[in-house]
Specification:
two-stranded antiparallel ribbon, globular, 17 strands, alpha+beta, Aminopeptidase, 339 residues, 31% strand, 2 domains
Length: 339
């Protein structure tokens, strides 16, 4: 069978009426924790986002979207999927090329494309440079396991050492936190604030975008009392100022849990962690989990994903020991290219 060409495939803007067809090619995506069913209609309402589907012989065979960020100079591509019967046939490459052509024609100010992938990036993104990678640790907690999980993690945090309390940041405090250039340089490798697989700079417009999403922000100051916190790496901000990596403390973002196709009332819960101190990381995970459980509807469970610096992988894996693992991804990779 010959592979389809760009002349065979029709790429059109996605609409609300296309929802069921797009979902029909998404069955089994991400082992039942696909975000698109919960995000599709929300994305349609976003004026900064454009969504596309690919049709071949009248049938939907692919989907892709991009959202404009960084004050309109960067486009982040999200949601790519291809029907199971057309995978590895070149459909993904065709839809992405057409989307890039559309982007360049309609948004000439965009100079950069960014995207996230899992594991080693495929050859289809060979033009992209690697910006950063983070470790992923994930567990599944059914409704009747939530109390036990929280108690277990509380015990493990209490056994580690005392830490300064976490602060739940208000919108004003979030904006203030990133006014200091050392915050971004110290906490965020390459200045990237990755929230729910969306890689952003700390431009004020991006922060304001995130503040509309009900995200829980926790921040804690770095600890000077114990040797755990004495070894600090250093980075430089945009002006060349040296900033100790730990000087900005530790930051976590918790995405409100949302229903996924896994069934049994399961919800997905993403916790993005920024910083390198393992005890702070565990404390943030605990408090984010407590908050996430509070937001669940009655009888619901969660699949919880932790995204952290690679140096924290072993610590967080041990921290979650005795909880049921949900092995799906090992890494989160951020890629970028100029256009």
């Amino acid at each position: 069978m010959s592979q389809p060409t760009s002349q065979d495939i029709q790429v059109l803007p996605a609409t609300a009426c296309d929802y069921e067809e797009v979902m029909s090619i998404s069955e089994g995506v991400y082992s039942g924790v696909d975000y698109l069913p919960a995000r599709y209609h929300e994305w349609l309402e976003d004026p900064q986002r454009e969504m596309f589907l690919a049709r071949l012989d009248g049938r939907v065979v692919g989907f892709e979207s991009y959202v404009l960020v960084d004050a309109g100079v960067t486009a982040v591509f999200q949601g790519l999927r291809v029907a199971s019967w057309k995978r590895s046939s070149g459909v993904a490459g065709i839809i992405q090329r057409i989307c890039i052509d559309h982007l360049q024609s309609n948004h000439p100010d965009v100079t950069t494309i960014r995207l996230t992938r899992v594991e080693d990036p495929p050859s289809s993104v060979s033009k992209y440079r690697l910006l950063h990678s983070k470790a992923v640790v994930s567990v599944i907690l059914h409704h009747d396991q939530l109390d036990h999980a929280v108690k277990l993690l509380k015990h493990r945090v209490a056994s580690a050492c005392e830490r300064r309390p976490l602060d739940a940041l208000t919108p004003e405090e979030v904006l203030s936190l990133f006014e200091n250039s050392c915050t971004a340089s110290g906490l965020l490798p390459n200045g990237l604030l990755i929230q729910g697989w969306l890689p952003l700079s700390t431009h004020r417009s991006n922060l304001e975008l995130l503040l509309q999403r009900g995200i829980v922000w926790f921040h804690s100051e770095h600890c000077e009392e114990t040797s755990d916190c004495d070894s600090t790496s250093k980075s430089r901000d945009a002006s060349g100022t040296i900033c100790p990596f730990s000087s900005s403390g530790f930051l976590s973002l918790g995405t409100p849990p949302y229903s996924v196709p896994l069934g049994d009332g399961m919800h997905r819960f993403d916790i993005d962690l920024f910083g390198t101190d393992p005890i702070s990381a565990k404390t943030h995970v605990l408090h984010q989990l407590i908050k996430g459980v509070q937001l669940l509807p009655p009888g619901a469970g969660i699949v919880c994903f932790l995204y952290a610096e690679m140096s924290l992988h072993a610590e967080l894996t041990n921290f979650c020991q005795d909880l049921t693992p949900f092995p799906l991804w090992k890494q989160q990779i951020v890629l970028e290219r100029d256009i």
